[in-house]
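Q: I'm building a small set of examples for a reading group on sequence design. Run inverse folding on the following structure and report the sequence directly after it, with nothing in between.
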């Protein structure tokens, strides 16, 4: 962004982008990422409200399918109902992990074992930059093997685990989908919708359309009856190991991210999109780990299957060998405000706001200084939340040390809030877009 007249530069960049996007149909493609759909929601808020863009095509995988389906309901000018408002309401309405993640009874029994629960939770809560759900789950499973439980019914729980189809119940996600997705509105909106899921029997990536019709990954129709759209969304969100598969017709389906984390190829090649905004929920890249020479079979398998392989898939989807050209704009975070399994009201709010600012930085070409400010604002809000009290996740580590004294915490909060206010003012003075709430931290009841 030029040093002179920055606000004028932002206005010109916004106008030019709107004008260019008015020439042909727009597609939004949303990746998987669990509760990190919060970041995607913030990006989409910027696309809808600041740039005034409306998609004709929506593609989603896993949590991206929930967002895509909700946006595919379209707006209702007569009532003032807006799909983007209702999408954001879903994320801001999440209050605890039980709103998304509900452990099966046998898993709760294993997690409660006093002899090894502390170390298990600590390792399970370690998060690399990509925040993968599979990473967290496989860490936990490796700890079960390395530290076998010994007492009080745990062996029975392990026997149940051998017969189990998943670690977590699908019921919270089912309620979220059934309460918020309206197939009739989607059918009436006129938007093109594609939801990705992978059939376990065939091993193939399939798409489900806005009418519940199944298609191949190339967009060719499959000779099967239409399926319920809510079931299709659940199939796309059925993370292997985490949730049980979802049956569609005569096949069982799991998360589309198994084969395609970011579903933009179909929009690029077959759906007539003039431009595609590809929104990635978590930070691409693999965090370096210490020496793995002493790691066991499951730890090595976890490192490959949950860290390296998904990142390589995403890398190729974001930047294929021949590139996407000017028709695709990728928007991804530079840091993860929370991981894919954490549901925390304050962190979700911070992630939504960060998505809004990150979209502005990328789409308006605001430069590295504004990108650094956006990331720092998000990091400060994370720091505020950590100072306010413990963050509970499905596999939260037990606290190792007592919290600092209240007066120490208050002094640190005052310092962090001051820096946050200064950075928000700097962004405002530069004319760079800010989210509607001006990045005010959300107070979480402790």
């Amino acid at each position: 962004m030029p040093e002179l007249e920055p606000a004028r530069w932002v206005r010109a960049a916004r106008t030019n982008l709107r004008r260019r996007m008015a020439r042909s149909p727009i597609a939004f493609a949303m990746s998987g990422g669990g509760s990190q759909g919060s970041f995607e929601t913030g990006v989409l808020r910027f696309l809808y409200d600041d740039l005034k863009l409306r998609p004709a095509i929506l593609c989603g995988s896993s949590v991206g399918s929930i967002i895509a389906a909700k946006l595919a309901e379209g707006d209702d000018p007569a009532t003032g109902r807006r799909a983007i408002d209702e999408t954001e309401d879903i994320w801001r309405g999440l209050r605890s992990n039980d709103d998304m993640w509900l452990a099966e009874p046998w898993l709760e029994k294993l997690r409660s074992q006093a002899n090894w629960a502390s170390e298990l939770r600590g390792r399970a809560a370690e998060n690399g930059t990509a925040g993968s759900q599979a990473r967290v789950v496989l860490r936990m499973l490796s700890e079960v093997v390395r530290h076998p439980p010994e007492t009080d019914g745990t062996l029975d729980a392990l026997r149940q685990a051998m017969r189990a189809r998943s670690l977590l119940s699908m019921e919270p996600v089912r309620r979220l989908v059934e309460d918020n997705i309206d197939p009739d509105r989607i059918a009436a909106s006129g938007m093109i919708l594609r939801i990705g899921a992978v059939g376990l029997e065939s091993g193939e990536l399939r798409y489900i359309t806005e009418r519940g019709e199944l298609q191949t990954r190339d967009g060719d129709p499959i000779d099967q009856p239409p399926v319920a759209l809510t079931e299709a969304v659940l199939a796309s969100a059925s993370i292997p190991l985490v949730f049980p598969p979802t049956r569609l017709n005569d096949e069982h389906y799991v998360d589309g991210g198994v084969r395609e984390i970011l579903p933009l190829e179909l929009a690029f090649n077959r759906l007539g999109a003039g431009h595609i905004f590809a929104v990635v929920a978590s930070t691409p890249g693999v965090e370096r780990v210490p020496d793995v020479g002493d790691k066991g079979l499951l730890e090595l398998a976890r490192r490959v299957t949950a860290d390296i392989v998904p990142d390589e898939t995403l890398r190729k989807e974001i930047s294929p060998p021949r590139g996407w050209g000017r028709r695709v704009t990728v928007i991804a975070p530079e840091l993860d405000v929370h991981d894919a399994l954490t549901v925390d009201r304050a962190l979700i709010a911070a992630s939504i706001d960060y998505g809004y600012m990150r979209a502005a930085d990328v789409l308006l070409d605001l430069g590295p200084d504004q990108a650094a400010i956006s990331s720092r604002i998000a990091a400060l809000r994370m720091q505020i939340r950590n100072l306010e009290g413990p963050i509970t996740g499905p596999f939260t580590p037990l606290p190792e040390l007592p919290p600092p004294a209240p007066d120490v915490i208050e002094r640190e909060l005052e310092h962090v809030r001051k820096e946050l206010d200064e950075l928000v003012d700097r962004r405002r003075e530069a004319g760079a877009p800010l989210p509607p709430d001006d990045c005010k931290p959300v107070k979480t009841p402790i």
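Confidence is low (pLDDT under 50) at residues 114-131.
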